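Lab meeting, item 3. Inverse folding demo.
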């Protein structure tokens, strides 16, 4: 087997590479735009199985050349490039998976199913935590309940870390801004509509994780779950993000000040998008080093049947990074054994019990109501 991890030096890509290395004996290519970082990370494994390649993701010829001959391409770069990378995989005739397309991109990607089927390959979309683990938990719940009318998806984090930095960003600033500003998809009474950003406020009681306020956010689950579970009677499906009030105020202030605008400003003779400048600054607040936190993903059916997944940080990476990267590695290893060909969301193609067993090996525990699976 040969895996290519695009964005293999990013915070998610690094953990994907680490897990693939620890759980397989296969060849792994770290592909990243930062050549020095890629080679340094590859060397840190002291193994000939891991190699590094520099890559300009915007160059189709370079991308196709790099992934040709690989078995699986794991896409850990910003979701804006998903379609371009999938088309390159079609040209290179290789399997593909990613972390999600924030609804709209996912819908476009699903339309490539007949092309992947034609070349006898598989693409699985949204293989992180949410989407990803949440989708597979939804599949498990659907098998247990058979009939249900609603699915409510959310998550919570509990952080014990003593930070020296003034602010902590959980993941990519650009993705976070999209979640705060793009109109969220909501499925209600059997119909899909787009609500106002940050609407649909709901209080969640997460027990030991405390009480947190959630609001609607655009997410990939809504692009697939309504169709996947229509046969089960699904009429309502919602996804909410939950962040502390203080965090919300900071992000909302940055947005309201126009610091996430796509307008350009001139910086030392070069036109640069304002959001690119802000992202450069804000992404420095993604924590590195010793992190001590826990994350819980939650999928509730009809307010009566709850699936939850718990992840703890490992002292190096935050829980939210681990439960996003680890499913990518697991599904990348499963993908070559999938008999059906085409493009799929995780809930229709991944065996829940096999997947949960692999999560458990990595310390991610899944519960049906309050009973561990």
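The presenter then showed the designed sequence:
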């Amino acid at each position: 087997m040969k895996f290519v991890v695009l964005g293999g030096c990013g915070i998610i890509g690094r953990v994907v590479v680490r897990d693939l290395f620890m759980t397989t004996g296969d060849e792994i290519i770290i592909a990243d735009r930062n050549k020095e970082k890629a080679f340094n990370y590859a060397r840190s494994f002291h193994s000939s199985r891991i190699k590094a390649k520099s890559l300009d993701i915007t160059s189709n010829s370079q991308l196709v050349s790099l992934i040709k001959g690989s078995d699986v391409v794991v896409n850990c770069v910003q979701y804006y490039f998903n379609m371009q990378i999938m088309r390159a995989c079609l040209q290179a005739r290789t399997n593909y998976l990613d972390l999600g397309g924030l609804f709209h991109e996912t819908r476009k990607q699903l339309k490539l199913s007949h092309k992947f089927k034609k070349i006898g390959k598989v693409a699985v979309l949204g293989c992180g935590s949410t989407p990803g683990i949440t989708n597979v938990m939804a599949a498990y719940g659907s098998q247990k309940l058979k009939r249900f009318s609603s699915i409510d998806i959310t998550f919570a984090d509990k952080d014990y870390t003593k930070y020296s930095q003034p602010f902590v960003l959980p993941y990519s600033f650009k993705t976070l801004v999209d979640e705060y500003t793009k109109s969220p998809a909501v499925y209600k009474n059997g119909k899909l509509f787009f609500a106002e950003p940050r609407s649909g406020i709901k209080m969640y009681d997460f027990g030991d994780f405390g009480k947190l306020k959630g609001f609607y956010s655009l997410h990939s689950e809504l692009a697939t779950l309504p169709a996947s579970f229509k046969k089960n009677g699904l009429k309502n499906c919602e996804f909410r993000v939950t962040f502390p009030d203080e965090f919300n105020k900071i992000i909302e202030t940055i947005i309201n000040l126009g610091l996430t605008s796509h307008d350009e400003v001139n910086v030392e003779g070069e036109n640069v998008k304002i959001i690119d400048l802000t992202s450069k600054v804000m992404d420095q607040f993604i924590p590195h080093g010793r992190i001590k936190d826990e994350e819980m993903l939650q999928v509730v059916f009809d307010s009566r049947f709850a699936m939850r997944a718990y992840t703890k940080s490992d002292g190096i990476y935050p829980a939210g990074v681990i439960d996003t990267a680890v499913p990518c590695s697991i599904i990348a290893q499963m993908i070559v054994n999938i008999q059906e060909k085409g493009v799929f969301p995780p809930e229709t193609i991944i065996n829940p019990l096999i997947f949960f067993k692999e999560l458990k090996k990595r310390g991610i525990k899944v519960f049906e109501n309050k009973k561990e699976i």
